[in-house]
Design a protein that fits this description.
The protein is α/β, with parallel strands linked by helices. About 40% of the residues lie in helices and about 20% in strands. The mean pLDDT is about 100. Bound molecules: nicotinamide-adenine-dinucleotide (NAD).
Length: about 475
């Protein structure tokens, strides 16, 4: 059994859970420890005890540790990518890309650990010099979803450690293997015992214990809107610092002057790759009525060529859905779309492959309107709704008519429309002639409205969440 990591030691859990490959249900990846609330508390105490030592470690010590972690992740990207593809179901190139990204994030924050800058400002009172510095927040609780099993733990843990915080990580129950492998690498990087702790287990016990414990100074969460808002309310009740990344219903606007091949490529990749299980997926395709019929026909043709199969097979483009409950959710939304009067153009069925897994063919609904549930609710599967519009202004208004605001895209050859869209779309990330999903590791990530709450993640902006500012006055 793969154990939890608490206070620098590997420890058994209260129980264990079995990690199964969604591409092949006969492939058991391993047994992983499941902590109870008492073990979560032990991890918090260990992180608390290690906080002063790590907060006062030199920038060099922090940088060296993060650099070592990043180097090892990159060197083992093939092996870690296979593990990730086996437990989550994304294809091997997607999984290896995710692992590389995790490595690059640690490398990036190895540099940032040496660039934690302050400010010295002019005096306004004679003799009294003001100075602004950044300090660690303290103990950071990290709660992550299943769809990016190594990148999301990495993009939270790397800045937490770079800025001198200690960490308790609770990964999603479905994908403990990648988080365990990351922890094993971190355990050999030279951090003080207790600076990084892993507690695998259920959200309602382990996660909730972290959210409720006053000794956890900050909670960073990525997951669904429902869980996020419940966590936010408990955490705010005790005045914890919080950062919440939640769902999306991301629009891709396709103008009648778009390059059709580029637009179809963006839509196929954005809506269906990673089996549509991305918070940045293009689940609403807003298409100008002048090219609507051509776009839908071209999408249907491309969708017929998509190869669905085992995540580790080289020919596979679309891996399985992560588990039975996500499969049930996809199928439920297929029924909802049909009953709302949307026209199913392609896909939307459970598919048999030569291994027993959760295979599902990407689905395209046409003749949708923006009021339908399939246009408003996050499905989190490879299901996209095509919604026609008559003018740029109408397309923009539809793009903004949503409870979410994570990512938004436009396909156009008009500089005027691209520029206007960049300025006026209500989203944290805007893409012009590229898919709504697929982002860089050195710039901020996050959204508006129901998608995100609190400071942005990643890039230098991560410092807003992982540090607290101190203003000092010195009468010299
Ligand atoms: P989820 O909300 O079910 O679970 C997320 C995490 O919260 C898991 O680790 C879970 O165990 C934990 N949890 C559950 N109940 C808890 C509680 N009471 N207290 C503390 N922790 C608790 O989400 P999921 O199904 O794992 O992931 C899919 C969701 O994640 C989608 O909605 C997707 O849009 C979102 N997501 C968002 C982003 C982003 O950056 N915006 C990125 C990836 C995924």
């Amino acid at each position: 059994m793969q154990q939890n990591y608490i206070g620098g030691k590997w420890v058994d859990g209260a129980t264990a859970s079995r990690n199964v490959n969604p591409s092949d249900l006969s492939d058991v990846i391993g047994e992983y420890a499941q902590a109870d609330a008492a073990q979560a508390t032990a991890a918090i105490e260990a992180a608390r005890a290690a906080a002063p030592a790590w907060a006062h470690a030199t920038g060099q010590a922090r940088s060296d540790a993060l650099d070592k972690i990043g180097t090892e992740i990159l060197a083992r990207s093939r092996e870690l990518g296979e593990l990730l593809a086996r437990e989550e179901g994304k294809t091997l190139p997607e999984a290896q890309g995710e692992v590389n990204r995790a490595g690059q994030i640690f490398k990036f924050f190895a540099g940032e650990a040496l660039r934690v800058a302050g400010e010295k400002l002019p005096m306004v009172r004679p003799g009294i010099e003001p100075e602004v510095t950044r300090e660690p927040v303290g103990v950071v609780g990290i709660i992550t979803p299943w769809n990016f099993p190594i990148a999301i733990p990495a993009w939270k843990a790397a800045p937490a450690l770079a800025y001198g915080n200690t960490v308790v990580l609770k990964p999603a129950d479905l994908v403990p293997a990648s988080a365990w492998a990351l922890t094993e690498i971190i355990s050999r990087a030279g951090l003080p015992a207790g600076a990084f702790n892993l507690v695998m287990g259920r959200g309602s016990t382990v996660g909730q214990a972290m959210v409720n414990d006053k000794r956890v100074d900050a909670i960073t969460f990525t997951g669904s809107v429902g869980t996020g808002s419940a966590i936010a309310q408990s955490a705010i009740a005790r005045m914890a610092k919080i950062q919440m990344e939640m769902g999306g219903k991301n629009p891709l606007v396709v103008m009648d002057d778009a390059d059709l091949a580029v637009a179809v490529d963006c839509a196929i990749q954005g809506a269906f790759y990673s089996t549509g299980q991305r918070c940045t997926a293009s689940s609403r395709l807003l298409v100008h009525k002048n090219i609507h019929a051509d776009f839908v026909a071209a999408m249907a043709e491309r969708m017929r060529t998509l190869r669905i199969g085992h995540a580790l097979r080289p020919e596979t483009q679309i891996g399985p859905v992560v588990d039975q409950s996500q499969m049930d959710q996809n199928l439920r939304y297929l029924d909802i779309g049909k009953s709302e009067g949307a026209r199913l153009v392609a896909g939307g069925e459970r598919v048999q492959c030569d291994t027993d897994g959760y295979y599902f063919s990407p689905a395209l609904f046409a003749d949708c309107d923006n009021g339908m549930r399939i246009s408003r609710e996050e499905i989190f599967g490879p299901v996209a709704a095509v919604i026609p519009f008559g003018s740029y202004e109408e397309g923009l208004a539809l793009a903004n008519d949503t409870d979410f605001g994570l990512s938004a895209g436009i396909c156009t050859t008009s500089l005027k429309h691209a520029t206007h869209f960049k300025r006026h779309v209500q989203a944290g990330m805007v893409m012009v002639n590229c898919p709504t999903a697929g982002v860089d590791y050195h710039v901020p990530f996050g959204g508006r409205k129901g998608s995100s709450y609190g400071p942005r993640e990643q890039g230098r902006y991560a410092a807003e969440f992982y540090t607290t500012v101190k203003t000092a006055y010195v009468n010299a």
